[in-house]
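**Polypeptide and fold**
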Amino acid sequence: MSEKRQRQKENRAVRLAAEHKAAQWKRRKRLARNVVIVVVVVFGGAFLLSLLSEGDDEPDAATTTTTTTAGSTTTAGGETTTTISIVDDVPTATSYELFASQETACGGTAPPPPATLSFDEPEDQGLASDAVVTAIIKTSCGDITLDLDPSRAPQAVNSFVFLARQGYFDGTPAHRLVPGFVIQMGDPTGTGTGGPGYRFDDELPPDGTSYIAGVLAMANSGPDTNGSQMFLTVGDSGLNTDFTIFGSFDPTQPAIVDILAIPLGPNHGGEVSRPLQSIYIESVEITVG
């Protein structure tokens, strides 16, 4: 058996084990919830039932919602979804060191580690609202072209361009990957909790806006907590309009397709979304027309 085939076999085993563990956890939680409901019905504890309902984090997939609780993420797929939201502080045990210890995705070479950069606020990049702003994210798996929209989200675009020009994203890993949902990146620490040292206000789209494949948006940990983390939506996510949309991209780009084929393992929260081969942002090239 070739070394590559052996790695694929091992990755598949890790993924299946994680999915089995997650299924066991769901069954135990469902059983516990049913026991509590029986107790509530028997004793007429309507108050306890209302508390249980409010704390339920597994809505039906057809009615996927998101929360803005710090440390949450949203997972799509299966009969139900575990709603933890798209946020900066995803509860994971991953780190830059963990990603650096792994094979680099797509046969690439790991770039130098990201610099430790922190800012009080982004500098004004002088972008006109009608400017045509393009970002080319050079990754281990090839280039991803983004079309930024300063007329829609001037603060988010200004911040992204500022950080890119400072080299903030260089060497950072994509720490979260959920096929059919999102690719999340922009955290130098690789933990899902990192940021540039500042936060800026939301620039939310109108209610009813769909976060479909090709939408580029800011991750957050609640209202007005945007930093450096972003997500590229690679499926019809069903997200609520709680996230600033600041651009778009073609989801059929070869680099996106290759990234979505990377094997995954569980993060600390049990979500199978940690790339087992490290995807790095090597650099970001900005052009303004």
Remarks:
- The chain has five helices and eleven strands.
- The chain has a mean pLDDT of 77.
- The CA atoms of residues 14 and 265 lie 6 Å apart.
